[in-house]
């Protein structure tokens, strides 16, 4: 019941219209949000948002995984800083990083840390600086399924790898039945869906498969789907829609998109299978290590946790920005918005929306880094 309430809250937040002159746009993506106008600043926004010299328009794009979090943050920020217009386009992590390195946006959202070649590309638009990763949003990647007559399902990494590599094709396969002895599994074809666009969610999901089931997943992790077979859909919302409407479907997407969808419990080295919840994702993310250098705060996640209640398929969404050389006309708004979403109040909105806030030791470093952006 608690998870259902959080998921309902996530969708409600995602549907909220933004207020004042601030708008969210989603051209070119199926992860869209409505725009509108609203009332005055809330007490929370007034107390936690420092607008500073922020003004004008701020263009940003990228991760669709954080869309519902961005919606919630923007509502509060707009109430306090009516002179700023932010346009966040949830095009997917790959497109977002490309737009940033081409100088089209003030910052990008990505569910994967910058690669060396992307950092090199960023130096062309970050005068005397480079793009850096600021971990801001965490959460579980839920594996949603639609199998008639099956309300609870447990799978492990090896079985998931074989399902998404078209090696297991029926829901009553022996490997699935062994993990679910009490389930009445139908003789039904599995319809496995993956992202059609470049996605950090795909990157993290395939990193999990490669780390936890190397013998069953021969593909290198990445934002683009490499396995053969299966079907595809655009964006997290597209995958969730396919699972909802397709009998026999299974796919992966952020927990905030799992409204009304049954999700798989993941068998790990722990004694009991682990459910996809914010709390269980936080337990796993808390063990992450900062591996970025300098001001870069890229994290290394553990995809094979053995601790009880640590959900293994997690992601962290980074806001990517120049450490130095940000455009003078957008820097005040960029810092004001990033400062707010990294604040205690900004992070406090995440659990309600089905996301995991960053651990204290990590978000403290993020705040320090934002204050030094130039």
TrEMBL record:
Give the signal sequence positions.
1-23
Q: Does the keyword Disulfide bond apply?
A: no
| Keyword annotations from UniProtKB, A to Z | Phosphate transport, Signal, Transport
The record's section on Pfam families has: PBP_like_2 (PF12849)
Question: Where, in this chain's numbering, is phosphate bound?
Answer: 63-65, 93, 111, 199-201
Whose protein is this, by species?
Streptomyces griseoviridis
Which BP terms from GO are recorded?
phosphate ion transmembrane transport
| Protein name per UniProt | Phosphate-binding protein
């Amino acid at each position: 019941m608690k998870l259902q309430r959080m998921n309902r809250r996530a969708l409600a937040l995602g549907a909220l219209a933004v207020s004042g002159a601030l708008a969210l746009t989603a051209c070119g993506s199926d992860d869209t949000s409505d725009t509108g106008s609203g009332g005055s600043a809330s007490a929370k926004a007034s107390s936690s948002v420092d607008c500073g010299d922020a003004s004008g328009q701020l263009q940003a794009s990228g991760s669709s995984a954080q869309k519902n979090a961005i919606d919630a943050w923007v509502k509060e920020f707009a109430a306090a800083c009516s002179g700023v217009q932010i346009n966040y386009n949830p095009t997917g992590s790959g497109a977002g990083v490309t737009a940033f390195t081409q100088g089209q946006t003030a910052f990008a959202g990505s569910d994967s840390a910058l690669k060396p070649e992307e950092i090199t590309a960023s130096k062309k638009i970050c005068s005397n600086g480079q793009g850096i990763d600021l971990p801001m949003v965490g959460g579980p990647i839920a594996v949603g399924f639609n199998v008639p007559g099956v309300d609870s399902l447990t799978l492990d990494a090896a079985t998931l790898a074989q399902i998404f590599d078209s090696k297991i094709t029926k829901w009553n396969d022996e490997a699935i039945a062994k993990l679910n002895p009490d389930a009445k599994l139908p003789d039904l074809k599995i319809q496995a869906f993956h992202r059609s666009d470049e996605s950090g969610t795909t990157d993290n999901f395939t990193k999990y498969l490669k780390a936890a089931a190397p013998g069953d997943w021969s593909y290198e992790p990445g934002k683009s789907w490499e396995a053969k077979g299966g079907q595809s859909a655009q964006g997290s919302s597209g995958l969730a829609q396919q699972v909802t409407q397709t009998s026999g479907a299974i796919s992966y997407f952020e927990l905030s998109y799992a409204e009304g969808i049954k999700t798989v419990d993941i068998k790990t080295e722990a004694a009991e299978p682990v459910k996809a919840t914010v709390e269980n994702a936080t337990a796993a993310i808390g063990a992450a290590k900062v591996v970025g250098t300098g001001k870069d705060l890229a994290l290394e996640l553990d995809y094979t946790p053995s601790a009880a209640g640590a959900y293994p398929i997690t992601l962290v969404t980074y806001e990517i920005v120049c450490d130095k050389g940000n455009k003078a006309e957008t820097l005040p708004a960029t810092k004001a918005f990033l400062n707010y979403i990294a604040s205690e109040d900004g992070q406090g909105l995440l659990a309600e929306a089905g996301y995991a806030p960053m651990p204290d030791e990590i978000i403290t470093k993020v705040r320090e880094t934002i204050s030094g952006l130039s």
